[in-house]
Structure formats: structure tokens, C-alpha cells
Amino acid sequence: MKKDTIDELFKELNFDNKEPGSGHKARFLEKLEEETSQTKNFGGRPHKKSLWAPMLSVAAILAIAFMIFAGFLNENSGRNSGELASVSPEMKETQQFYIQLIKTELATLETENTPGTEAIVKDALIQLEKLETEYEKLKKDLQNSGKDKRVIYAMISNFQQRIDLLNEVLEQIENIKTLKKQNDENYI
Known about the structure:
Blueprint: H1 6-11, H2 24-41, H3 52-73, H4 89-111, H5 118-145, H6 149-187
């Protein structure tokens, strides 16, 4: 068998066998002109997918979660019978402490929300809603049980779980930032 080189194999083949259709150049120039006019309309940048829609949806979710969270933590003297604050002055201080701490952590989480951490933040908000639902059930149990210590402990534990969740999410966000920074430094 004879060994053929690549040049010999392709020597006989003619790849330039088709001409572009009539008006090809005009169509190409028309599309090119259309593309350049679009970039002028968008400040000299090509039109890219807008990041505002996802950011606004995350901001809306955070705002709704914050309003719901603030709404159920609002101290109304007429509705205090199911609240932890109705048990004793010490429990009222405890409830206020946890509420303030959770609000602070939520505000920090909101500032750390970026497109790279959007999924983690969304998941954290879903988990907070679940804990909030559980807390509402505990409030009803507190009313029905006559201020049972186990229910009080469960309510305090619920607050602590929320704080732990927020701290864990903020820690994960910091890890993501660190990894991104290291990757960017290595890439450069």
C-alpha cells in the first residue's frame, strides 16, 4: 500500500465549487448596517441580555420576605397572647434581641446578594419562610398550652435556627467571594 500525504489527497478535490447566491453581498451589507445601528442605539455596546430583570426579581423577593418577617414580628399589644413577649419581661427582651439580630443579618444578606450568589440567597429565603411558618404554629401552641416551657424553648430554638441559617449563608457567600478572588488572581 502506498502512503498518501494529505496534500496529495486534497489535490484532486475542489472545494471552491459554489458561488454565493445573487445579492449575497447586498444582504450581508444590509445586516451589517442593521447591527451597527443597533449598537449605536445602545450606547455603543452590543445589545446584551438585561441583568435588571433577575436582579429586580431577587430584590422583590427580599422585600416581600422582609415585610412578611417584619409583619409577624411587629409587637401588637392586642395580639401578644401568642407571642414569646407575652410570657414574661425576660422573654420579651429575648424576643426583641433575636428580632433585631435577624433583621441585621437579613440586611447584611441583602447587601451581599449578587448574580453569583442569587441561588444561595433564594434558598435561604425559602428556608426562612419555612421557619416562619413553624414559628406561627408554635405561637398557636403557646396559646393553647398555657405558656408551656417546651413551647417557649421551641420558639427560642426557632429564632436561633434562623440566625444560624443566615450566618451559614453569609459564610458561604464569603467563601464564594474568596474562591472567585483566588480564581481571578490565578487567571491574571
